[in-house]
Amino acid sequence: MFTLAHLSDPHLGPLPNVRWRDLASKRAFGYANWRRGRAASLGPASLQALIEDLHRAEPDHIAVTGDLINIGLPAEVDAAKVWLAALGEERDVTVVPGNHDAYLPGAVRRFTEAWAPWMTSDEEAEGTGFPFVRVREPVALVGVSSAVATAPLMATGRIGETQADALAETLDSLGRDDLFRIVLIHHPPIAGSTPWHKRLIGGSRFRRAVASAGAELVLHGHNHVTSVAAIPGRDAPVPVVGATSASLHPHEGRPGGSYLLYRIGRENGVFVCEMEERGAAKPGGPIETLSVQRLQG
Ligand SMILES: [Fe+2]
Ligand SMILES: [Fe+2]
Asked: pTM for this structure?
């Protein structure tokens, strides 16, 4: 049995104190947004409780599907690196970036370097870039980047043709090795699952790659709600699971943050996968099992 833990969108705070004149215009927007919304609805206390529970579950691996930070400040990128190091060993934690990590082009350069130990292929010779592959038998994690800097008030992601083609090739070859292929991407690859300004551009390319080569599971974040859907695969539909923000406080009638555990094994030679969601059922309550469901087999 292989256990993967999945958390997303921690939006680590608080933001370092910044002077307004140090903020480029897009960051000024984002900073004001953070002060108004996220600072109130996200918090380290709930995230810390979830991570302690996650560590008690002793997963074989941890996946983080993006939006580690808020407005791409260098100090945020560096703080997230420290947070990742505390989350687990480099070989046991895999990260893909989100739109908030890529807030401005400079941020992409900075996180690409700082977070490389958690988002590069096993084989150094394969270099950095996306998709990257980390094989932890019987699982193969395939990291895709949908993170691009956008105009103010936009939160779109993008998959280009080159990355989609490489994804299809990678999935095809991992499928021949009989591995349980898990694709990690920040933006949900389901058409119509986000408002227009938050959508994944090139989502149809991603879906074509998965439909032609197949995959066993797709994990994403971005929407700050837990969701289960499916997209066509090569031999069978592929479950697509969205994790909510792990830092979410219960507010405005919405539940607080949670994380997901996937238990992957084989029964009669066929892969099986069960998913458990863990979080607090009520504000301030203990972390407990919120739901269990079979995704595969
Ligand atoms: Fe987010
Ligand atoms: Fe996002």
From this structure: 0.92
Residue partners of 238: CB distance under 8 A and separation at least 6: 210, 214, 215, 216, 217, 218, 230, 231, 232
Q: For the chain, 297 residues long, give each residue's pLDDT as a single digit of tens.
A: 999 999 999 999 877 666 655 666 666 666 667 666 655 555 566 898 999 999 999 999 999 999 999 988 899 999 999 999 999 999 999 999 999 999 888 899 999 999 999 999 987 655 568 999 999 999 999 999 999 877 777 888 999 999 999 999 999 999 999 999 999 999 999 998 899 889 999 999 999 999 999 999 999 999 999 999 999 999 999 999 999 999 987 776 677 899 999 999 999 989 999 999 999 888 778 999 999 999 987
The whole-angstrom separation of Cα 239 and Cα 228 is 7
* CA–centroid distance, residue 132 to ligand 1 (Å): 22
Q: How many domains does the chain have?
A: 1
**Which structural domain, as residue segments, surrounds residue 95?**
2-296
Ligand 2 ion: residues within 5 Å (CB): 67, 98-99, 222
178 Cα–ligand 1 center, Å: 33
| Cα 9 to ligand 1 centre (Å) | 5
Q: Give the CATH number, domain containing residue 118.
A: 3.60.21.10
Report CA dihedral (279, 30, 97, 218) to the nearest 10 degrees. 50
